[in-house]
Design brief:
Layout (H helix, E strand, L loop, with lengths): L2 E5 L5 H12 L9 H10 L5 E7 L2 E10 L1 E2 L6 E9 L8 H15 L4 E5 L2 H4 L10 E2 L8 E5 L7 E4 L9
Parallel strand pairs: 5-6, 7-9
Antiparallel strand pairs: 1-2, 2-3, 3-5, 4-9, 6-8
């Protein structure tokens, strides 16, 4: 079976929501709002890039990218997340493939970089690093990561869209 990565299309919204909620439900760190975050990003016009992994016509993975500020300024940097893969397809490279394609597309659009808050063991395989120069309030620096696409590595406080503050 071949997995295809494509841009989100009209009609994918509910499937993405359900997939995201199911993927995050068993995670101890989940706020339970990950699907709502994607809906809010879309509604706010801040879902800069939304990709799905599809196999045999079925969506099995999704990744969202949205603008972020660093040190209070937007400078063509984007945040990665939420990202989800159907439970029975996790640990098969689908998430990494979604990230790689998203980074490729962001670079083509002139993005300077991408940042996220997450486990280094998951994201170092696709080039993300934590150097302590990028911070996120209340989170140990080791979890705050970035991938510089052009220019200088970021320095300062990372802020995601207000969509990330939605309640369950």
């Amino acid at each position: 079976m071949t997995v295809t990565i494509r841009a989100e299309r009209p009609g994918d919204e509910d499937i993405i929501h359900e997939l995201t909620q199911a993927a995050f439900a068993p995670m101890s760190y989940s706020s339970g709002t990950e699907g709502a975050i994607i809906r809010a990003l879309r509604a706010n016009g801040e879902l800069a890039l939304s990709l799905v992994a599809e196999e045999d016509g079925e969506i099995i993975g999704h990744v969202a990218f949205s603008p972020v500020t660093i040190g209070g300024h937007y400078d063509d940097w984007f945040g990665l997340g939420p990202i989800s893969v159907r439970a029975d397809r996790q640990r098969q490279g689908i998430g990494h493939a979604l990230i790689r394609e998203g980074i490729h597309r962001l670079k083509a659009l002139g993005a300077k970089g991408c940042a996220l808050v997450g486990d280094q063991a998951v994201y170092k395989g696709v080039g993300f690093v934590s150097d302590g120069e990028l911070t996120y309030e209340g989170v140990p620096d080791i979890y705050v990561q970035h991938l510089t696409l052009s220019g200088h590595a970021p320095h300062g406080a990372l802020t995601f869209s207000s969509a990330f503050a939605v309640k369950a």
